[in-house]
Design brief:
Helix content: 55-70%
Strand content: under 5%
Shape: rod-shaped
Number of strands: 0
């Protein structure tokens, strides 16, 4: 049996030239695919970044929105403390109007929560970490906001009260203290949080088109005229 050495039809030089052309074509195709994918991801990340920054800007605006009620909140809690002290001293009286409830805005997280993990992974690491921190702070603020709202809803149960027994007085003091604590925590967090968002992420409050209406009753004095200067 005679074995013949395999030889390309047009010689080895032509053969390797053809192989090189094929390899080059594959590399060009792969490179083009990577370029297309890179462009697509840049577009996807840019769209996500715009959406999530809009969401965070609106969430940040919940702090100055609430701060506009600060003076009325403090005045109302001071009035309620005076009212309670009067009952403790045997000089009880009836409030002249409803206590009212501070308005608050719900924190939105729909954009962040619905993000594809792969898209999130394409964000620069520092940006991704900072956004995660901001949303953790939003979540923490929701704890304070909801508890503060619950405290004020319970305070509103004293509307029209004509007598406060010992149990009522103890409950009222607890609610006043609870509302003050949440008010202080929210204010402190807002000051720190707004500064960090501006410095780290160049993010600022973005007002929404139709914010909840403030309760006008909150700013109306409810102590009898003769009691307001005491």
């Amino acid at each position: 049996m005679i074995f013949h050495r395999l030889t390309p039809l047009h010689g080895w030089r032509a053969f390797w030239g053809e192989v090189g052309i094929i390899v080059l074509g594959v590399l060009i195709a792969l490179g083009a695919q990577q370029v297309v994918e890179s462009v697509n991801w840049r577009h996807e990340v840019a769209g996500f970044r715009d959406a999530v920054r809009d969401e965070m800007g609106e969430n940040l605006d919940s702090y100055p929105y609430r701060a506009k009620q600060k003076a009325c909140i403090k005045a109302r809690l001071d009035e309620l403390q005076h009212w309670l002290n009067a009952w403790r001293g045997g000089r009880g009286f009836t409030l002249t109007g409803p206590i009212g409830i501070p308005a608050s805005r719900v924190i939105r997280t729909s954009v962040w929560d619905s993000t594809d993990p792969v898209t999130l992974a394409h964000l620069p690491r520092d940006e991704r970490i900072e956004y995660s921190f901001l949303y953790s702070e939003f979540s923490n603020n929701e704890v304070h906001r909801l508890d503060e709202r619950e405290a004020w809803i319970e305070l509103a149960s004293f509307d029209g009260a004509t007598m406060l027994d010992h149990q009522d007085q103890m409950r009222l003091q607890g609610l006043i203290s609870r509302a003050r604590l949440r008010d202080e925590r929210i204010d402190n967090n807002a000051d720190r949080f707004l500064k960090r968002a501006a410095k780290k992420s160049n993010l600022y409050p973005k007002p929404i088109g139709d914010p909840p209406t403030y309760d006008p009753r909150l700013c109306v004095p409810i102590l009898p005229v003769g009691q307001r200067a005491l």
